[in-house]
Amino acid sequence: MTQPAFAAVDWGTTRLRAWLLGAEGAVVAERRSDEGLLAVERGRFAEVLEGHLAAMGAAPSLPVVICGMAGSRQGWVEAPYVATPARLADIFAAAIAVPGTSRDVRILPGVAQKDHARPDVMRGEETQLAGVVGLRGGDAIVCMPGTHSKWVELKDGAIARFSTWMTGELFSVLAQHSILRHAVGAEPAHVAADDPVFGAWLDDGLANPGDATSRLFRIRAATLLADLRPAAAAAALSGLLIGSEVASAKSQFGMAHARTILVASGPIGGLYAEALKRAGYPATSVDAETTVRRGLLEAARSNFAIDAGDKR
Amino acid sequence: MTQPAFAAVDWGTTRLRAWLLGAEGAVVAERRSDEGLLAVERGRFAEVLEGHLAAMGAAPSLPVVICGMAGSRQGWVEAPYVATPARLADIFAAAIAVPGTSRDVRILPGVAQKDHARPDVMRGEETQLAGVVGLRGGDAIVCMPGTHSKWVELKDGAIARFSTWMTGELFSVLAQHSILRHAVGAEPAHVAADDPVFGAWLDDGLANPGDATSRLFRIRAATLLADLRPAAAAAALSGLLIGSEVASAKSQFGMAHARTILVASGPIGGLYAEALKRAGYPATSVDAETTVRRGLLEAARSNFAIDAGDKR
């Protein structure tokens, strides 16, 4: 059986995922929890981490590498942003060692685009990017959908530029707090990529991204005038927002000749794959969770003396 | 002193405004309340109305005309939508007489655009439109900003087509419920039309309406990277959303040669006047409250035997 070489943690705003990984990245143990940044009181981060490590049977000397919001100002220890253009190797080299812990715990920094006209930030996605292309990876456009979707242009192993769309959060706040809650219902339905309503509104968003805030109200009007049902309204809202994002990203990144990689897990991956296909360029899909583990392996190799022969 | 010829009520989702008006529209008495649709239990509409009429000293025989959400399915008595193209005179002729009341109470219908590709609805704005151009008014594009901004193309006294932007509601739900609440703060600042931050983001929204859902996140990023303060963040959000609306409306309505009229009250009127000016066409501004009263006068004349000589 593989011996763990280090622990890897993806510590986000609402969730924590932890693994014990072998020197080649094999998963030895795994934990998932809702103890994200918002749920952990200041001063309790070490305790929460040690609880998960103990549950996985990690040795006291096992080193830990962490990516995500745990490194934000509101997190455990701030790992200041690395500025674009940011080489993935330089990001990992800027990891912060958490002081006052008995084991070696490193928190990875996020990336900031300090361009006055297009300020932007990421935390966690930089690690996924390393999992997608490796530290010396070539050129690609990477689409990472989610609460705050990121699109990233990678050049020669560096994050050249990136942009964020609030697509997932817009869906959520509109479905819960706007007049569209009457259309979508209290528990928005699961949306399928082959749902023709999703497809029709996706095409609409792709063709008319500048009209998105107007087309939103048509979902409400269609429930009054055309008896649009809640499941269809959820599909319409999803299609419209994803279509608008992809059209806008296409205009910002001009992906015609680039290799495009879609990083997503679960149903959202299917929705974006459909959107990218309809937008006229095929993307290679990779699993987001596998990708973050691979990125954390790259980060561990950059920070600790880990190699295939290491059997701690 | 002018004698009241009828009572006029603008009964919306969150507010009620009532007036006693003379036969020529002079204001004899006035009431404002938060007893909008959402605050009035079913079965209590007559009681609430009579309370306000009594407080203004209205005679028991005085007729009442009502516009707004009181005529929706969730309201007092449903006044079914009139379909576009909708002549203003035909809308008023379709008023519903409330059954079981001792006085003559009429509720005005809303307007529906039953176009499969662009379904839309309005309730209340049709009455303001009559106040803007009269029942025989000519051609105009009318911009009516608010929670759900309406843009309307009027042709020969009829509503030819219209479209809705959720601008005001987007500002509100994003400022209260999204990650932008950290940027904007708990009590979003009043935004001034000559604020340079408002102007810069307005220009951005006008130039790039298709990127709106991406640019939203830049407001958050600018608070982290450029120390954007809450008042400036509110100005940025307002500018971005209004700019996106006006650019989108311009592409839908192509207003180059039309007479454009802006119907608004209070600070929002100044923000939209600035947006219309920067979008390249000047608009005549009229006060929204005066306009709804004028429209209700037109509606009363269509429904009751009211003329200048009537001194009931």
Structure description:
The structure is a homodimer of 312-residue chains. Chain A has helices spanning 45-55, 88-93, 125-133, 167-177, 180-184, 196-207, 212-225, 230-253, 267-278, 288-303, and strands at 6-11, 16-21, 27-33, 64-67, 82-83, 86-87, 96-97, 105-107, 111-113, 120-122, 140-144, 149-155, 158-165, 260-264, 284-287. With 312 residues, the first copy, chain A, is α/β, with parallel strands linked by helices. Chain A has two domains: 6-124 and 295-303, 2-Layer Sandwich (Nucleotidyltransferase, domain 5), CATH 3.30.420.300; 167-281, Nucleotidyltransferase, domain 5 (2-Layer Sandwich), CATH 3.30.420. Chain A has a six-stranded mixed beta sheet with strand order 3-2-1-4-8-7, sandwiched between helices. In chain A, strands 6-13-12-11-14-15 form a six-stranded mixed beta sheet, sandwiched between helices. In chain A, helix 4 runs antiparallel to helix 8 and helix 6 (196-207) packs parallel to helix 8 (230-253). The first copy, chain A, is globular. Chains A and B meet through strand 13, helix 4, helix 7 and helix 8 of A and strand 13, helix 4, helix 7 and helix 8 of B.
